[in-house]
Amino acid sequence: MGHATRCVPIIRTLLSSGNTVILGTTSLTEKIFKEEFPELKHLQLPEYDISYSSILPLWLKLGTQYTKVLKAIKSEHEIVEEYIAVHNINVVISDNRYGLYSKNAHSIIVCHQLSLKTPFFQKWSNSTHVELLKKFNEVWVPDYEEKDAKLAGELSENVFGLNCKYIGPLSRLEKREAEIRYDYLFLLSGPEPTQTDLLKSVIDKLKSYKGKAVIISSSSFKIDLPANIILIKLPNANELSQLIAESKTIVCRSGYSTLMDIYLLEKKELILIPTPGQTEQEYLAEYWSKKFKSVHLAESQLGNHSF
């Protein structure tokens, strides 16, 4: 969903320049795009249908589904070729969907992770990834090009000589001035079951908390909460912007789309809990702890942290 939300400002810019935009959606992204752009035509894209685990590290679980991902890439490539012919499409902009390219349209991929961080087979992983990126005419990197200004650190460095355009960080949220109402905002995101696992840990941690906190999650997990703790499911962009402005400290995963939101909203007090086994998030949490003085907290350490 983070990949969908960060495309919103790109789509707004395209529309303001007089372009006709067609949205490629899945069941996961359809709600966001219909909320933001109800007037635009939607075309259905295949699901990657990746499953995640509470036990296996993310890199290992993804590795076991490599063949499934390649099939999905092949399928979406065939579909986009058909869409281009039927709808007379001139430009295709993909956010981390590696099959959405064509020789019949100018093809752009939005990607902040040019250099992968993997615990094993890093050379092979980067070589395979670069070959996928080279199928596109351009790579748009949602980060700053200058090394000292980078939000993604080494991840967004163009070390493989790709045709990159650095377009700066992206967010659909708006910075607001507001009185602080909540001590903590727990902004939970990411795939299941890892999101619900973290939600359960947060709720358990807050049982004896006396301050005011708000939790945002898309999890379907149900529980009774004390009056000082509020649970909100999937607020819209305006509501989320307001809640972030009204919160003193943000506690969240270190996914890059979330980090761009927090950076552009200029929230300084930040506790980052990377998804266990997701090497990109683990790197970003460590990088932000050094660059922005954020607190880097492993999920296993949550119970020992004082709120």
List the helices and strands and how they pair.
Blueprint: H1 2-5, H2 8-16, E1 22-25, H3 30-36, E2 41-44, H4 58-63, H5 66-87, E3 91-95, E4 106-110, H6 122-133, E5 138-141, E6 164-166, E7 182-187, H7 194-205, E8 213-217, E9 229-233, H8 237-245, E10 247-252, H9 256-264, E11 270-272, H10 279-291, E12 295-296
Total number of strands: 12
Main β-sheet: number of strands, strand sense, barrel status?
6 strands, parallel
| Contiguous uncertain segments of 5+ residues | none
**Which second-level CATH architecture of the largest domain applies?**
3-Layer(aba) Sandwich
CATH topology of the largest domain: Rossmann fold
Beta strand %: 15-25%
Number of helices: 10
SSE sequence, one letter per element: HHEHEHHEEHEEEHEEHEHEHE
Strand arrangement within the widest β-sheet reads 9-8-7-10-11-12
User: Helical proportion?
Assistant: 25-40%
How far apart lie the N and C ends?
Answer: 28 Å
Radius of gyration: 20 Å
Q: Residue-averaged pLDDT, rounded?
A: 92
By secondary-structure content and strand pairing, the structural class works out as: alpha/beta
